[in-house]
Amino acid sequence: MSTIEKVECLIIGSGPAGYTAAIYAARAGLKPLMYTGMQPGGQLTITTEVENYPGYPKGIQGPEMMEDFKAQAERFGTDIRFGYASKVDFTGPVHKVWVDETTEIHANTVVIATGASAKWLGLPSEERLNGFGVSACAVCDGFFFKQQDVAIVGAGDTAAEEATYLSKICKKVYMIVRRSEMRASKAMQDRVKNTPNIEILWDSETKEILGEKAVDGALITNLKTGEERKLDITGFFVAIGHTPNTLIFKDWITMDEQGYIETIPGTSKTNIKGVFAVGDAQDKVYRQAVTAAGSGCMGALDAERYLAEIGVH
């Protein structure tokens, strides 16, 4: 039998959005309870150097930055626990969340900060070299490949946008596209095709990413001819999409067809009163640590106002 615990504010997830929500909620006296999820610190814990977050002029390692966020949240009294939300029931004014099938939390407000996970190709070499030349975020990591040759996998708007972004920094960008056409909008495709230092490799897939300690090449196969080609590259970017970690909320919360939670524009409010969504679980456009942190602040402020409205806090 599960134990029942009552809280004013429950935060599910622990990336920049979750921790910022916790800092604001704790300082407002909401005594937030946070469950970290299976990846405490979120996507930033698999990122090495973070150079684009304000306040770190020399840059900082992703895991170290998340430790800073965590320490700040704890300093103001956030109860941070390792655990995974496995089921929810948002029928009544009190929101029920089950953690690891054993603990039942009754919360007046819930801030969903479960983030999203990058989709990967599933190659062992990709996993081994992740953070050592392999990345799922060109905007985050492109800077480290200035004037170098890189490859990017993907055929949608994000891949086209990231290829264009990389073309401004890197010497040469190979865009690896599985089919003989792209899914990206015509405008984005035209932009890619008209960029002289982007070479599109149609009907191609990655067989292997090469390198012992860092990326120094990739083996590409043409799916029509069977021909293999070695690319001399130092950076390999995967842009085949993200999956929001929102499955357990699908019967309750309004989402788009990809599973991103829909919020009322300009707020963190969902279709359920007292339930708020922040960070990459509801943002498929920007997906940056700094925008996630900003939305985490919104989630805590919205939760605080909601509790005042219902006369709980």
Q: Quick recap of the structure?
A:
The chain has 313 residues and is α/β, with parallel strands linked by helices.
Describe this structure in words.
Strands 1, 2, 5, 6, 7, 8 and 19 form a seven-stranded mixed β-sheet that branches. Helix 1 packs parallel to helix 2 (62-75), helix 1 runs parallel beside helix 7 and helix 5 packs parallel to helix 6 (186-193). It is elongated and about 65 Å long. It has seven helices and 19 strands. The chain is α/β, with parallel strands linked by helices. The longest helix is centred in the last third of the chain and has 21 residues, at 289-309. It folds into two domains: 3-117 and 242-309, FAD/NAD(P)-binding domain (3-Layer(bba) Sandwich); 120-238, 3-Layer(bba) Sandwich (FAD/NAD(P)-binding domain).
Shape: elongated
Count of alpha and pi helical runs: 7
CATH architecture group name of the largest domain: 3-Layer(bba) Sandwich
Q: Tally the beta strands.
A: 19
Q: What is the end-to-end distance?
A: 30 Å
At the fold tier of CATH, the topology name of the largest domain is FAD/NAD(P)-binding domain
> Could you say how many structural domains there are in total?
2
SSE string? EHEEEHEEEEEHEHEHEHEEEEEEEH
> What characterizes the major β-sheet?
7 strands, mixed
The proportion of residues forming helix, as a percent range, comes to: 10-25%
Provide the low-confidence segments as ranges.
none
Q: Supply the CATH class of the largest domain.
A: Alpha Beta
